[in-house]
Amino acid sequence: MPKRRWNFSDTEQSIYLTFDDGPIPEVTPWVLDCLKEYQAKATFFCIGNNIEKHPELFSRIIEEGHSVGNHTQNHLNAWKTKTELYLTNIQYAQETFYHHKSFTKLFRPPYGRLKRKQEEVLLAKGFDIIMWSVLSKDYNQKVTPEQCLKNIVENLVSGDIVVMHDSKKAQKNLMYSLPKMLEHFSKEGYVFKKIS
C-alpha cells in the first residue's frame, strides 16, 4: 500500500464510502439503516471517545459487516499537536478499539493533516493511512444539501474514496445526499465496498 491511500484501482465499478467522527446516536444508526437498504458496505473512521460513549453503536457497525478505522481519541489536529502527544492519542484510541474487539490498522487523520514524523511513525507501526479522493463537504454549513450531493455525483469515478461525516454538524446535508447518492450509483451498477 502507498504511504497514503487516496483511491483504489478496481476493475469493477466500486465506491468506497467512508464516514468520519462517529459513532453518535443522532446520526450513526440512520446511516447504518440507509446503507443496509442499499446493501452497501462502508468504512467508519471512529473517534475513540465516541466509541467509549456509545459502544453499542460501535458494535452495530462491526456486526453489520462494515470496517472501522482509527480517527484519534479526541479528534486532534496533527499540525497543532506535538508529535508525541498526537501519537499517544492515536494509541489511546487504538486501545479503545482493542477493548471493543476491533483490531483495525486503518487510520485517517482528522482534517487530513499529518506531520511527516507522525506519518513515518504510523507507517512503521503498520498503519494504513486512508485519505480520500471525493470530499462531500457535508460538514460545511455554507454548503447546501443539493451542493453536497453535486460534490459527490459530479466528481466521483470508480475506485474513489468518498468522505462523509456521521456527525451533528453534517446531519442535514448527509440526510439529504446519502440516500440520493446510494440510489443514483446503485442504478448505475456500482458496488459500495468497505476498506479492509
Automatic annotation (TrEMBL):
The keyword Hydrolase applies. One of its GO terms (cellular component) is membrane. It comes from the Bacteria. Keywords: Hydrolase, Metal-binding. Signal peptide: none annotated. PROSITE patterns: NODB. One of its GO terms (biological process) is carbohydrate metabolic process. Gene3D superfamilies: Glycoside hydrolase/deacetylase. Residues 13-193 form the NodB homology domain. InterPro entries: Glyco_hydro/deAcase_b/a-brl (IPR011330), NODB_dom (IPR002509), Polysacc_deacetylase_ArnD (IPR050248). GO terms for molecular function: hydrolase activity, acting on carbon-nitrogen (but not peptide) bonds; metal ion binding. This is Polysaccharide deacetylase family protein.
